[in-house]
Amino acid sequence: MLPATAVFHFPWEVNSGSVQEGESVRTFGRLVCYQPEESKATLSAQYASKEHHVVVHTLFVEPFNPIIGAQYIVLGETENAEGVGVMVRARVLNCVDGVNIALLQKAINEQRSFFRERECKQGGAAQPADAI
Prior knowledge:
Elements: E1 7-8, H1 11-14, E2 24-35, E3 40-47, E4 50-57, E5 71-81, E6 85-95, H2 101-131
Parallel strand pairs: 1-2, 4-6
Antiparallel strand pairs: 2-3, 2-5, 3-4, 5-6
C-alpha cells in the first residue's frame, strides 16, 4: 500500500504540533547542516523574524551531494526523535536552489485555499442528499 499523499507544510508548522507522527509531509528550507555519519540534515527557514529548523533523516536518499546554503524541498514522513523533536524521514530530497520562496509560499497558500473551498462545496452538496 502506498503512503498517503503528502501535504505541503511550512517549516514552522512541522515542529508546532500541527503535524501528526507518521504523516506524509512536504516542506522546504535552506540546508544549513549535514551530518553524514548520522544521516541527518537540517533545513532552515525564516518566518516572522524567527529562524525555524526542520531535521531531516537522509538514510533513504543517500548518497546525495549536499550543497550547504542551497534551498531544498523534502518529501517524507514525520516521526518523533529523541532529543530532536519532530524529524522528517526523507523519501525525496531535491535541491531547488533559485526558487522564489515568496512565490512558493503564496502557491502553497493558494492551494490550501482551493482545497478548503472544494471541501466546503463537497460538504454542502452532501447535506441536501442526506436530508432526503
